[in-house]
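JOB MANIFEST
job_type = single_chain_structure
chain_count = 1
residues = 123
[input]
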Amino acid sequence: QVQLVESGGGSVQAGGSLRLSCAASGDTESDKWMAWFRQTPGKGRQAVAAIYTLGESKYYTNSVKGRFTITLYKTENTMYLQMNSLKPEDTAMYYCAAHLRVGAWFADNYNYYGQGTQVTVSS
């Protein structure tokens, strides 16, 4: 079992920055995929970025490449998403996820999700 708690969301103007945190507890020792997803009302969750805990390979969806950075601090059991040059279209509820069941890193198919943190970007 893994428990995930996100924080760091808020409201910011376009061009601004936010850093989201995802604190993990429980089974944090095993190697696994961890990811950030986002969701807007009426749409499914979209993968934003992911990292594999062994080797720390990182992946990003095209729309955030060069603006967002995913990092993992194993000693803190915390994953971060640094979001720079934010755009209104980045507005969403952001979720962290852990333990990909099957499929590619961007599949909405993880065993554990946090409760989400809202990010609102105004123009």
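[summary]
The chain is about 0% helix and 55% strand.
Residues 33 and 52 are 4 Å apart (CA to CA).
exit_status = 0
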